[in-house]
Specification:
about 650 residues; six-stranded antiparallel β-sheet
Length: about 650
Amino acid sequence: MLQQMKRIQVIGPKKEFGAVIDLLYHEGTIHLEDACQCIQKEEISLIPMEREKTAEVTEIQGRITGILSTLPEAPADPTLEEQIASELQDKTRDDLITRAHETIRELELVTRELASRKSDLKLKITTWDRYAKILNFIQPMERELPVLENYEVTILLIKKEFSEVLDLVRKEITTITHDQFEMNSMSVDAETLATIMVFNKRYSQAVHSFVFSVNVNEVRLPQEYMGKPFYAMFAQIESDKARAAEEIRLIDEKLVALSHRWFHELTYLKKMFEDISEELLSFNKFGHSEYMFVVMGWIPKKFLRRMKEAVKKTFGDRVIVSELGAGAKEMEKAPTFYDNPRWIKPFETIMQLVSPPAYREVDPSPVLAIFFPFFFGLMVGDIGYGLVILAFALIVKKKLGANAFAKSISEILIISSIPTIIFGFLYGEFFGDFGEMMGWIQPVHLLGITWNRVDAMIPMLVFAIAVGVIHVFLGLAIGIRNEMIRKNKKHVAVKVGMLLVITAIILLLTLYLVMIPSWMMYPTAVMAIVAILLIIYGGGALGPMEIMSSVGNILSYARLMAIGMASVILAIVANRIGGAIEIAIIGVIAAVLLHTLNIILAMFSPSIHSMRLHLVEFFSKFYEGGGIMYKPFKRVIP
């Protein structure tokens, strides 16, 4: 349910501002408003607080992030992490800034140099690999050029889409060297050609000047490789690569050692400075005059007393926390704060699909937490499927419990598996009709009906529509309450009229089926007329058209029967196919695969349709949304 919010004002001498803000930040209960906007200038002229040290904090964040990017991730160490947290979490902002600067001074230069050297070595290894590939290509010319002492080798890298430029290069080099050169091309990758040219050194300047003029990427064979036979060049490349690889290994060892010592502290500092940055971004919401500061905001009623006591204990009468009266207009701006029991909280995830409820609206989460599992169980309704879904959800929660979304979804499935098993008992279903065939379970006889879904399609359809009527009526009742709070008489009239007209339609249907006395026709007709007049009063001449929309909403609940029927039929088909195959093991595998597919569908399809029935058919009767989520001014990390 939504918690009652109180609007407060915190006032104190300007010299106490920093200490008060730190206390409020650590208390973490006040949702800030812009004090300069809330207080009229005629009352007191306020100036937004400047965000001190914002640039310094941002710089520290960037430098810590840079250091972390050079270090390998250290293995988790809960004891060390807890020790670092206990040491740093109570430090003031200035103490943390000092600590961060000390850590940066010790690490930044050394990690930067190690990372730069490692990057250079990796680039050299890549270059040497490229040289080796090129030397492999030109090695067949070794007989003509026993040594390259008087020759120069250069490589041109050209994109294949511009390969026609090679004809121009060949023609011009022929002229420059008097046709005393070798030129061959090879594919380096899908996009690049490497063209190798070997020519006498006396033409070197002219050749390089021409290549530069046509803007072609040129790679020269290093001078230390010149004048050596090919086997010596290959040996030198491998030797250079081995030395570089060894140096990289030593650098990695140093980085690992640094990571073991500093990674967890740097990670925690990074989170704390992200937290401080968020705190500083809120400073423009605080106002001050020459001698005093003002903080405005909202706080849940249950936290107000604790916050007042904390301020009183720390500052005495120097800082005053005042509870402000709030009229209807101000209450529209109050933030929305969910404070539901644990079993309802997972369903707040579904509420994220719509805008937050306005402060004075009814929180739909408890209703969602009751009807969503009910609808899910009604549609799936199989003991075996319920047990499998329960086991799956428990595994997901254990493995992915750190992820808030995965945890919420797994908890929704855990809760929904319980009515699934209960309805499976009513329907007599255990992996379809497998339990019934084995004599383990039978459908329950209730109200003169055998609740076997295949045999009781009409009763199931009637039951689904009846559930829809109850659900829509509940939505209209909540809508009446919301509109009464807003004092919107016309909207109240429309929703009351809709309740009456749907009731009248149901009574007319029961009269047609001779289920109630015929004299009920007259009060039913009066009810229908009154309902239509109320709808016209509230919604205008076109208001009665909404009647068909509401009736359509109720009929949409027939999907509770239809989706469930599709699921049980597929389960029965799986059992029949498994039993029809003569080779037992193949039949079992086929049945298991079909049941697995059906269980996967059972987790998704009923969930989607249950959400639709809530968000479209149910919420449309009362929900407006547009609220502001409660976002307390507080430390993000513990």
